[in-house]
Predict the 3D structure of the following.
Amino acid sequence: QVQLVESGGGLVQAGGSLQLSCAASGSIFRLRAMNWYRQAPGKQRELVAGITSSGITNYADFVKGRFTISRDNAKNTVYLQMNSLKPEDTAVYYCRDSAGYWGQGTQVTVSS
């Protein structure tokens, strides 16, 4: 059983930055791709960014150039650095590993 715990969400003004963290339990974190998703009220959950076990990254078009995903295998943690935040980035952000485990989510609210 893998546990994923997100942290780092909060309230920020438009143009500001936040860094989300997702800490994973277990010793095989380094072998798994990791993804960040988000879900805004009344909308479907959508993929934000992903990183493979070897560090290859991919991003949704709506965050390219603003968000950066990274991982620290020694800490079993994946990060999402979010810069130039917009009100439309307001959502609950979730991490998910390639085995299908989800974290509980962390709320990000961007005020205009």
About this structure: The first strand starts at residue 4 and ends at 7.
